[in-house]
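Long-time lurker. I teach an intro course on protein structure, and each term I like to show students one example going from raw sequence to a predicted 3D structure in C-alpha cell notation. This year I'd like something fresh instead of my usual example. Would anyone be willing to generate the C-alpha cells for the chain below so I can use it in lecture? Attribution to the forum is fine with me.
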Amino acid sequence: MSEANEEPTPSEQEPQGDTDWKVEARKWEARAKENKGASDELKKLRDAQMSELEKAKAEAEEAKAEAQSYKQEKERAALVNATAAATGVPPEVLRGSTKEEIEAHAESLKEYFAKPTAPTINLGKPSNNEPAGEREDFARKLFGRE
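-- Reply from a regular --
Happy to contribute to a lecture. Here you go:
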C-alpha cells in the first residue's frame, strides 16, 4: 500500500470469511485523516465568514447610530429655527436639546435681541414748535450743504 487513498490489495487481506482488522483500521485511519483536513478547512472558512459577518454587523450598527445622530441634529435644527423665527432671537445663540429648553433659553434672551424702534426724523414737515427755516438750516449745516 503506497498511498493512503488506495484500497488494500486482495493479497493483503485474508480470506473473505475473516476480516483483517489491521488493514481495516489503516483504511479507516486514512479516511479519518482526509476528513480531518477537510474539516479543518471548513472550520477556517466558517471562521472567516463569521468574522466577516461580525464585521458587517458592527459596521451596520455604526451606520445606524450615525444616521440616528444626523436625524437628531436635523430635528434640533428645525426646532431652533422655528423658535428663532417666533422669538426674534438668532438661532446661533440658542442652546438646549429639547423643545422646552430651547424655548426657555430664547425667552431669556428675547429682551436682549429685541429690535429697538428707531426715532423718525421728519425733515420735510415743520413741527408745531419750530419754524421750518431753522430746521432746514440745521439740516444743511449738519450735512455740509451750506
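Some talking points for your students: The chain has two domains: 21-115, 121-146. The first helix runs from residue 21 to 87.
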